[in-house]
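Journal club side-thread
Mid-discussion, someone asked how the predicted structure for our own chain would compare to the paper's figures. Pasting it here so we can look after the session.
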Amino acid sequence: MSQQHPVRSTGSPPPRPDASMSLLNNVIDHALDDGYAEATARRVAEGGALPRPLRAKLGLAAGLVLAAAVVTVGAAEARISAPVVAKERQELIGRIEAESSTADGLEEDVERIRAEVAERQRKALEQHGGDQAELVGLLSGATPVSGPGVRLVVDDAKGTDSGGGGPRESSGFSDTGRVRDRDMQRVVNGLWESGAEAVSINGQRLTSLSAIRAAGDAILVDNKPLVPPYVVLAIGDGQRLSTTFQDSADGQYLHALVENFGIRSSIATAADLRLPAAPSLIVRTAVPRGAGAATPSGRATADTGKGTS
């Protein structure tokens, strides 16, 4: 019997060295995902639209070009309108200078007319005042005066505001620490009663027709606003005038304002004070009417020259 040689099995072929790297091979062989490939194919089919970054750059460039065009046009218009603006400015300056010159001329005319009025007032006082023309001019405020007297300064309390609510408001005043028109009225009347021959407040000469009023927080003397401190000058016998005023009821009223509400006040005698004449003084004389001129009540009337305020 012949002996058979055993059949030797060849087995499976040996594995490839990169068999374990199939996933990496698949990524390398298919680097572009199918979704990206489809999107790219769709953009190409639609006409080859530009990538988004490129569109953004083109939009920015277009905006810059538009801004540059606007700036260029604006600069060109400014250069064109510059001569027109300069001409209008020069015309405006010329008009201002002309109007200022006209105003200066009007002010000179006003001063000239005031001087003429004052001269006619003095002549009227001499004509109707006779030997007492100088005294009449002094008492009426038509002429400036100088001489001894007192200098009284009245000022608001320190730290006073424009608000009210203090005890003076409940007593008919506006607030606690502010000087009011009624305060100055009492001060001036007290000086007149104490023997003052002429009085002024902050350079404003007072006459028998003067009015001291209030407009808001301001004090008006003959419709001219004054600001504190209020400097009152009174011509007369300085020492006697000062003593008499401080002992009077009005002087005690001012002292109460100082003590109770902090209003500041000082009084001193002066050897030489100068008070100006009253502006826009109206000279009036009392003329008796005829026997036939009578009021409805049957009584004859006369113009006393007193104004109403």
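Post-session note: Helices lie at 22-29, 34-45, 52-129, 133-140, 167-170, 181-193, 238-247, 249-261.
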